[in-house]
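Q: My labmate handed me this sequence with no annotations at all. I'd like to see what the chain might look like in three dimensions before we decide whether it's worth expressing. Could you predict it?
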Amino acid sequence: MEKQLKTSFLSIVIAAFNERENIEELTLRIEAVMKKIKMPYELIYVLAGTDGTLEKVQQLQKKIPEIRYHYNKEPGGLGNDFKKGFAMVSPKSDYVVTMDADLNHHPEEIPQFIEEAKRSNVDVVIGSRQIGHALVENIPAWKKTVSKIANVIFYLLTRMTVKDKTSGYRLYKREVIQDIAKKMRAPNFECVMEIILIAAKQRRTFAEIPIRFTYRIHGKSKMNLIKTVYGYLLLLMKVVFRRIE
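A: Here is what I predict for the chain of 245 residues:
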């Protein structure tokens, strides 16, 4: 498998808003994983905030040339930030991974995504908290509830078999996510669901693999309950009135 992994190029896109306490550990763990599997890659950060995250990334970039970044002082919302990141992906990239900046997602699982993509040749591999030996640690009850309700409602409306539609830890074929990005409209956290809905409408193929999800230790969650619920409701209306592009 290691020889097979060498033949590809991976882009990792991460949006980070005031994540100074997490960004160095995340970056060094990603670097260690990519060195271990000997796969060429680029690490694209879409940064916002004024807590020193930008300066941390600039320091890391001096030692890790694979790092690239875009910076705005004010946050633009996860959906908008992902679109910026996807636009920065190198044309030589085969796959694009998205993950959280707060260490919710474990970089050590990246090889599993690549292996599944190569094995099944699907368009999207989703890191699922809902299947197999998935492990969820210390997540607040309200986040579990919002995710569960959203997954159930959108399943009833679409009959889509993806079990964890709100997971942000994913791998996409580059050309697939760049095509989907042109149709993305959701500005905030609901974008992760929107991407799946667009992909399903385009008849893209999916696979899910179990992941370990660990709630952040450092920093404050940027996910706002009211904004998130409102975003899902708007997305729900788009589905009902068939306005997903």
